[in-house]
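Quarterly update from the structural biology core.
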Amino acid sequence: MAILIQITDGIAGLRFSLDQARTNIGRDPENEISIDDELVSKTHAIIEAVPSTEIAGQVEYYLHDQDSTNKTFVNDEQVSLRKLRHEDIIRIGMNNFQFIEQSTTDLEETAKLHKSWIPGVFYTTKKKK
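Predicted structure, tokenized:
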């Protein structure tokens, strides 16, 4: 599963789960992700979850611009159709979203925090495979 995180002034805000086959994004309140912004079209873009042709059981996510007036951007590049990759930044109107692809192993694993000798500094250690 994947999520979109709204980024405002470099700070993570609202989180939206992409748990449906199609997620509509736009100004219309009927969209799964509704954005109150005059620069956003009523139905601005769609994110579609499609089974991977390369890896069985995996899902790929595609962003489709819906001929919006002010276009859709991924990593500051105007797109009409784009396969999304982990940590891509999507701009719709004046709104930025970070695409996060979550793997089940990341969700099941909890990191242990260690205190360093420097006051207020903590660190984690990665398991060796």
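The radius of gyration is 17 Å.
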